[in-house]
Amino acid sequence: MRVQHIVWNDRSGWSVAKAEPRASSLVLYFGGREALASGARYEELRAMFPAAHILGCSTGGQINNDDVSDDEIVAAALSFDATRLQLCREDITDSHQSRSCGEAIGRALRSDDLAGVFVLSDGLNVNGSELVAGLSGVIGADIPLTGGLAGDGAAFKETLVGADCAPRTRTVAGVGFYGQAIRVGHGCAGGWDLFGPRRQVTRSVGNVLFELDGEPALDLYERYLGPDESKGLPSSALLFPIQVYDVQCPDSAVVRTVLAIDRGTRSMTFAGDVPQGWTAQLMRGNLDRLSAGAADAARQARSGMAAQSPGVRDSDQRLSILVSCIGRRLLMGQRTSEEVEAAGAELGSGALRLGFYSYGEISPHARSGHCELHNQTMTVTTLAEVA
Amino acid sequence: MHKLLAQQLVKATDEAGWVDLDKLCGLVVAAYEDIDRDRRRTDRSMSLMIEELDAVQRNLEHTVVVRTKELRAREAELQAQNLRFDAAISHMSQGLVMFDGDARLVICNQRFIAMYRLEAENIKPGDSLRHVIDRRIANGTFSGDPEHFIGNISVTIKAGQQITQFVELDDGRTIAVVRRPMPGGGWVATHEDVTERRLAEIKIAHMARHDALTDLPNRLLLRERLNEALAQVERGQRLAVLYLDLDQFKNVNDSLGHPTGDELLRAVAQRLRGCVKDTDTISRVGGDEFFIIQTGINNATDAEHLARRIVEALRAPYELHGHLVMIDASIGIALAPTDGSDANELLKNADMALYGAKADGRGVYRFFEAHMDARMKERRALELALRRAFDNNEFELYYQPMLNLGKGDIRCCEALLRWHHPERGMVSPVEFIPIAEEIGLIVALGERVIRWACQEAAQWPSDICVAVNLSPTQLASKNLLPTVLGALAASRLPPQRLELEITEAVLMQNSEVTLHTLHQLRSLGIRISMDDFGTGYSSLSYLRSFPFDKIKIDRCFIKGLGDNSESDAIVQAVAGLADSLGMTTTAEGVETREQLDLVRSLGCTDVQGFFYSPPVPASELAKVFAEQPGAKVAAA
């Protein structure tokens, strides 16, 4: 596998692809919504890589090795020696179609030699939990499924996904990696601290949370954010993610992040399900522990890769895709790059590290192994090929 | 240098290496603001969390207080419940004992301890079942194999069965034990002393199959025993069923009262017991009727011997409440398998044989014979006919004159009832009077006779009386006096012209009531005579019990006159005795001149019989009166 790292900024345009652009079979790119919205950048990529599948999305910030930026577009062009690819794109009009959308992609990508799937999804009009459940239900829980929900900075207005087309809203796309050569390492960790009392989800419908302990959920968040930061809702709610779990099954614990609020119904819409009857607890972040979480995710991906493919050397070319939550970035501000550096330190010098800040991360659960939608985590997907 | 400042410097430095101070300051200020915001947020969230946790803690404390209070209340309620439970258990009339799944004592009440004469200090919760049993073995309230007993309990409790057992203790008590499994493998058992109830049940079971008066088997047990015995008949054995009935028992009851009647029945039962083998069954089936099942007989003679023994045994006088009572028994005998092989048939045939015995006179036994069935049917027909005859008045009174031997004139005519059966013609009173008595028609028929006789006698010459026979049943009836008074009043016949004839049998049941009635009748001027004198027992003593006006000497003595000096002597003695007591004597059944002469010579004052006149219809009496019968008598 060969990896070319290219970058776009409005001053210099695209950095030049160094070698054999026609041999590249997959281009991944991540950029701000405004930079991608026109479709011009896609067309430029298409021109550069006419034979490749081109998959990308809008973000809440791009990860470019140790840096985090808002004004660049980061991209990687991949050439595989022995790995077949298949790209599938589905449009979605309503979040209730999330599961069937996932199932449709799963059916399109399903194959005996399917080795992994990387998914990018609209970040606002999709119930990520349902999407992942639908997809993973079809391809099987043992196929690594990673990816993320597209972002829109802290605006939460519109997210774009492009798959062999100009980026657009309400799109979900996945690329399947096939064959014996491809290796997929993955890791997922949060680093958030639980705080405050445990609360009962007393009223919720799917991913819409109405009440905790009988009190409107929005009241609780506004109280914790204070009047100033409440003005920044829904993005400011990302400073206090919640962990939800079924008391009968503590391994089910997942972190949920807010996508939208409704001041009329005092409800909050999360990126994944918040089942009624489950227990919820607020979380708060701290720079050091979030960075440690990112390092943990990177460690998982690296050790996973090492375990499944002793033949892959650290010096071989590989790509690590880092998908981290916008909530983490909002909390860490200028110091966000510290978590990226922490992850990079674990992944080693041989890997190109690209990624984005998302509205939801998709990765197998670190403990249960089940593919799930995560929030407020750093997920790392590492791709490599063995000879 | 701080890592962040280093980054900021990099970001604020252009490609030529110049640091843009404004940009740097902007980044630094933003970083400070970030830190301030983060600190404020942290402060805020920490204090909110503390408030919330505080509230949660207060809530918890409150909950603890409330729960503690509830627990205390529940504890108190449990304690009260325990007290009530204790009180209930210790005041139970039953013994109660509870064992756990390891067969160790959980609880037992005082009643249980007392019931098995245990010592409370030796029986403690936690003791094994074996220990409790050992204590009971030691004091003699347990018998049997303890291991077997424990094994049995274990099996039934594991099977989840409720078991009820009746345990007979060596001291005679019966204990009902009900053992119910409990969740967890233990059991609870109640022990109840049911000795009294068991005895009562035994007594009730006995009463259901025995006659309360004599304690003999009743009809139910009779049938059971007969069926059992008949099963043996199927294997070749023979048996006899004897159906026994006391003759004239009703008279004993009527004249001496039921207590005496009951005493007589008990005495009869006792004598019967003396007559049979242990394997035979005597049963009283009601009134004065007894059945005897005689088993293991060889032939009819065995049954005949038993019947004879019984007749003899029962015939001996009974001393009851100061009265000397004599009674005969009639017996019908049916044999199995000859006369039937099922109970119903045998009992029915013995009944018919009894009927045959009664028809043949009293104090006799008869074997069943096939023709008895026909006779029984005939008798039933006669019963029906008699009832119809009463309704249709198919009766007529005949009169037989009695003559005074001195003057030769007719002093009195005896009214005699005749039945004109529309198909059979004249039916003898000997045949229908006993049936009338049995079917309860005798009183009504007797009353009718008194009224008729008085009415007809009122038409006769004023010096001629009418004699009417009274049956013992009539005399016992409360209606007798009103009937007689009514008949006299209706006919205007003077009481002195009415003579009532009673038999010795009436006096044999010498009740105060009977004598009182007789005295009342006599005080009205009605004459009382003794009929058929000499056919009963202790004849002469009866003459002293009531001042009769007349004694009628039974025809059997008259028939024996001449060739039997005993009859002569008796007639003479009676006549003499009567004379000395101021009574007249009428010789009944005088049919010849010789008899007439003899009775006259022996001292009788009056005669009655065919020699002078047979009974005649009322319509012919005028002719008899006109024939001057005195001449015929006087001429003798």
Plain-language structure description:
Chain A is of the alpha+beta class. Chain A folds into two domains: 2-189 and 288-385, no CATH class; 193-284, no CATH class. Chain A has eight helices and 27 strands. In chain A, strand 25 (360-364) and strand 26 form a beta hairpin. The N and C termini of chain A lie close together (9 Å). With 636 residues, chain B is of the alpha/beta class. Chain B folds into four domains: 3-87; 95-199, PAS domain (Beta-Lactamase, 2-Layer Sandwich), CATH 3.30.450.20; 212-368, Reverse transcriptase/Diguanylate cyclase domain (Alpha-Beta Plaits, 2-Layer Sandwich); 382-552 and 612-635, EAL domain (TIM Barrel, Alpha-Beta Barrel). Chain B has 24 helices and 22 strands. Chain B has an eight-stranded mixed β-barrel with strand order 13-14-16-17-18-19-20-21, surrounded by seven helices. Chain B has a five-stranded antiparallel sheet with strand order 2-1-5-4-3. Chain B has a five-stranded mixed sheet with strand order 7-8-6-11-12, sandwiched between helices. In chain B, strand 13 (395-404) and strand 14 (410-421) form a beta hairpin. In chain B, helix 9 (258-275) runs antiparallel to helix 10 and helix 14 (442-457) packs parallel to helix 16 (480-491). The longest helix of chain B has 70 residues, at 21-90. The interface between A and B is medium-sized, with 17 and 20 residues.
Radius of gyration of chain B: 52 Å
Shape of chain A: globular
Domain unit count of chain B: 4
Q: What is the residue-mean pLDDT of chain A, rounded to a whole number?
A: 91
- Structural classification of chain B: alpha/beta
Provide the domain count of chain A.
2
* Shape type of chain B: elongated
